[in-house]
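pasting for the record
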Amino acid sequence: MSRSLFTCRVIELIRAIPLGRVCTYGLLAAAAGNPGGARQVSRILHSCSEKEGLPWHRVVNRNGRISLTGSAHDLQKGLLMAEGILFTKGGSLNLDRFLWVPSDGSFS
């Protein structure tokens, strides 16, 4: 099955998130051409992270929080902390400090 252009763009963008930085589902969707596609980004992460070797742990929600629950949440938090990302006691991270925003010209 061939991948859509949107899926290919999302995968490329996730690969580009630098060590020690995060991006949101919505920003990735918008940069890949679908501003309303945050849930599609989630689906792509779920289906492609392992086989594509994506740094899935660097994607968080728009509030700077981990959307996963249980052991997956703990794993993601541990991976982010190992990259130097700090969390508040409430469980969020500072997007002003750690957010990576894809450049507007990512796919010109």
